[in-house]
Amino acid sequence: MSDxxxxxxxxxxxxxxxxxxxxxxxxxxxxxxxxxSPTSHPSTMIGIPxxxxxxxxxxxxxxxxxxxLLQNLLAADIKVHALCDVVREKAEHAQSLVVKSGQSAPExxxxxxxxxESLVAREDLNxxxxxxxxxxxxxxxxxxxxHGKHAAVEVPAxxxxxxxxxxxxxxxxxxxxxxxxxxxxxxxxxxxILRMIHEGLFGxxxxxxxxxxxxxxxxxxxxxxxxxxRRGFHTQRDGNLYPTHGLGPVANYMGIQRGDSFDYIVSxxxxxxxxxxxxxxxxxSSDARWAERYVTGDMNxxxxxxxxxxxxxxxxxxxxxxxxxxxxxxxGTKGVFADYPSxxxxxxxxxxxxxxxxxxxxEHEHPLWKQEGEIAKKLGGHGxxxxxxxxxxxxxxxxxxxxxxxxxxxxxxxxxxxxxRASVASGSTPMKFPDFTRGRSRERSASQIAxxx
Length: 453
Known about the structure:
Blueprint: H1 14-21, E1 56-60, H2 64-75, E2 79-84, H3 88-100, E3 107-109, H4 116-120, E4 127-130, H5 137-146, E5 150-153, H6 161-174, E6 178-180, H7 188-198, E7 205-213, H8 217-220, H9 230-233, H10 244-254, E8 262-269, H11 274-282, E9 300-306, E10 311-317, E11 329-332, E12 335-338, E13 343-346, H12 367-379, H13 385-399, H14 407-414, H15 416-425, E14 431-432, H16 448-451
Parallel strand pairs: 1-2, 1-4, 2-3, 4-5, 5-6, 7-10
Antiparallel strand pairs: 7-11, 8-9, 8-14, 9-10, 11-12, 12-13
Helix pairs in contact: 2-13, 5-6, 6-14, 12-13
């Protein structure tokens, strides 16, 4: 399960790399990285509802993120039957939270890296939540689906195009859903703006912007939590390591895989400086981390063109001082919204060419926030979006609804990771997106989140 650290585009085959690296000018051709799955399955998972069930959950990964998700599930009175982690103390702490909530103690699986295989084989689970380091996501999600469980996996769902297809193929073969837990799609502003777009207030959409600008230097060099594994990816890959938080909401705004689709991406990176500077200031020269060579450019900027001609700017920087920012911009022929701070402008509004705030648009507040907003805010979890996301997922399971986000979203929103790396490595050559829906991206017209009543 270890990643190849010898090559920053290690998840590309040699044949793929030679195909695009031989180009002499951007735009001569756009290589498609595994545009077709190795196998084809005629049965799509688009529009397939859950069979109505009482959610019975197993969680793989009970570190900081997994424990946070667990607390939100317990607040929603969801039954948790099994917990897995390679660190037994973390699993025991999570178990104590379940018992404290009034439930029976869930069974623990802590015997090594592959203990999760016993958890997913249980007969009493119908959903497995995966909150582990990125390189384990696909193997664990595939195992869950193969054993008849739906999988809900943290972001990004996959870090290679091959693995994106593996998730799609397995979901279609097993008839089990694979949902990427993209909480930012459930933020207060994101859901409000999505409904306004769906109601036509922004006119014809033209462009969007998303980002993950988050100063993680202290966390990356920590001796616990994500510091134990996340910094390693900065020694392996130059591109956008974490695309989905900024991209998911914009994709929903634009109806990606619901009438439109990602066409191609162009990506470039700045030099790497931030982690070197932080290490100089905070890490003793005798520390083994001085042997590491960081290759991820500090700021990666990508441009995505959609099949209908819309454009998306996508950015990533976790290595430099910067206030937290997902940018979250959407613009159309009638107006524009931008976040951090939130502001909105419509053609002809009072006050001339100046931004206004969202206060006068509260009538478009999403029903989930009207119904569950107070408890979501009390729990915290990224402003309440974590609770809203999980509450909605449990609602879909109980009521037998179509999931808001499916395996095709998980694959498409994760794909800018490997595609950006390929583009950067080839001098910003455009890279074609695979069509993970196999030509069915127009069978839907809008995000389920937008149309929920």
